[in-house]
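user: can you give me the structure for this one chain? tokens are fine.
assistant: on it. calling the predictor now.
[tool input]
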Amino acid sequence: MDNFSRIFQRLDIRYIREFLICGEQSGNSDGRTYAQRIDGVRAPLMDMITEILTQKKEYDAMLKRISQYEEEMRDVYMEVGMQCGAALAVQLLGGIAGMQN
């Protein structure tokens, strides 16, 4: 039963993400919300872009394109994540069904 306890202790989406991306588990758990994490990297980037682009007359057009890029990336990664989650759920349910036979 101890093995199962250890499995459930490691059941954390951030650990799974770290393993899938890096192939290892760092053990670092970030307690911030998703929005806080994104804002933490987005705000400095946008400040830098704003500083650079305020000196150009096409600032508004450039900012609009950056925003469109950001929105499309968000949509694509969300869709990919949902498809991956669905595929994992199908595999899990298939495994459960196989155990019942």
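assistant: here you go. The CA atoms of residues 4 and 79 lie 32 Å apart. The helical segments are 2-9, 13-22, 34-53, 59-100.
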